[in-house]
Write a structure and sequence with these properties.
By secondary structure, the protein is α+β, with helices and mostly antiparallel strands. It has a domain of 107 residues: Alpha-D-Glucose-1,6-Bisphosphate, Chain A, domain 4 (2-Layer Sandwich), CATH 3.30.530. 40% of the residues lie in helices and 20% in strands. It is built from 5 helices and 5 strands. It has a 5-stranded antiparallel β-sheet with strand order 1-2-3-4-5, with helices on one face. β4 and β5 form a beta hairpin. α4 crosses α5. The mean pLDDT is 80.
């Protein structure tokens, strides 16, 4: 029994010494390293380093890609076009904007618009616009889905035109 313990200990020490010889340390000049945790974190983000669940699982290989709503021309154009309407849901990560019911001059008819973003590219087929119409007469309200209507087609074309101009402006600013 004592022989087996000595044998196991010998193999354990042998394995540790072999594994230790595989590690190569990179020489680092501390004068080139940023001071403070925030500066080190900023440097790691700029270099595309960092740890997250996706990088640990091997899905996030490569640099990081941060997308904000202010850098998406379709999103910005949609909000600028719909700025006169009351909004109930605005979810950039989910890619949806939903307005509240809107009517002019307290009429019995009101509309509700939903915009779904299918992609970030400035193209008409990357938006899905759904318009609902509510008609109320004597306390009874009826809600209908408007298909192939002028509201959604005009809204789509104005959003795409506005997004194209916003994208051109941002490219001009980047060139300067």
């Amino acid at each position: 029994m004592k022989f087996f313990k000595i044998l196991i200990l010998f193999f354990l020490i042998l394995n540790l010494s072999l594994l230790n010889s595989c590690i190569k340390f990179k020489k680092v000049d501390q004068r080139n390293m940023p001071d403070g945790a925030a500066a080190k974190a900023r440097k790691n983000i700029e270099e595309g380093k960092g740890a997250g669940i996706s990088s640990i699982l091997g899905r996030g290989v490569g640099g990081t890609n941060y997308e904000f709503s202010t850098s998406n021309p379709m999103w910005r154009a949609s909000l600028e076009i719909l700025d006169f309407l009351p909004l109930t849901t605005v979810d950039y990560s989910g890619g949806i904007i939903i307005t509240d019911w809107y009517s002019e001059n307290n009429s019995d008819e009101s509309i509700k618009i939903s915009i779904r973003f299918l992609s970030n590219e400035v193209r008409a087929d990357n938006l899905k616009i759904i318009v609902h119409k509510k008609q109320c007469t004597q306390g009874n309200c009826k809600i209908n889905l408007l298909k192939n209507n002028t509201i959604s087609s005009e809204l789509l074309s104005s959003i795409v035109r506005k997004a194209a101009t916003l994208e051109k402006e941002s490219k001009k600013k980047k060139k300067k």
